[in-house]
Write the structure tokens for this entry.
Amino acid sequence: MNAEGWYLYGVVEAGAPVAMDGEPAVELVTEGRLAGITSRVSLEEFDEAALVERLGDAVWLEENIRRHEQVLERVLASTTVLPCRFCTVYRTEADLRQFLSERQDALSSALAEVAGRVELGVKAFVDRERFAAGGAQENDRIRELTAQAAQSQAAQSQGGRAYLESRRLERLVGDERARFGQEAASELHRRLLDNAERGVLLDLQRPELSGRDEEMVLNSAYLVSDRPGFERELTALARELSERGLELELTGPWPPYNFVSEELRA
Amino acid sequence: MSSDLRPDLRQQVTLLELVDRVLNKGVVLSGDITLSVADVDLVYIGLRVLLSSVATLEEQGMPVAIGDALR
């Protein structure tokens, strides 16, 4: 027997417009003021014992993580959705309905908090070379040392002195870059918060994970109702800070993963 | 280039970005079957290792699908 369970992607308000066509196919289970976005899955695939095995299968994981997100993005295009975590499965429709009805108030208020808003992700990076040529030159001592280093090079002066000078310059630029990164990150976060309902700071990613050589100085998410306004501010910030070596990345819109209330996350 | 916002990156969602959200965030207390904290950590660590090896391959000019990295 191939028993079926209910995979819950997310929760919307009952009666909200949701595109049901397209792949992967989903079903709406409406209970009171809420509706669950679900699809039927084989419990053989998703039952605890099977799941542990599947979790070690990166191909399966990628496919299913992407499906989870695809469904939610399709819903997000037409209404507000409260995203569930990956692999939230009910054994029966009755269990799913019971969850929706028992948690109705908490889910409804969590939905109201994010209604009409989307999550946008922002990352900021400092480009070493552009910073050394740009932002770093705002520091008098660095400017002086840069000039000296250029002179030494022009005079083709050999040996210890030029080397020490260049090492000192490198260190100063490094310190200055760290300071600039921190200041730029807090300035960015402050100004983006002014254009958002809420915002959170996320863990910074190392270069091998961010896929970029530049150092990440900000990784944050914002709950935004005025998307054009937010993007205008981000573009303005990118322009202001670009000469000094800062680069910005925008992702989203996302379902409000980072803005589901603590009560529902606990 | 008018700014450093890279429009091509806007919709290009990396798996890591997805993993960060889909596995760690969202409504979690529901479900007859959910990932336990230990499960999530396991997946997360595994995928991160996998992703960094994919990133390394891509740096070497060999773009690969995540699945391919395993074979």
Chain B is about 50% helix and 0% strand.
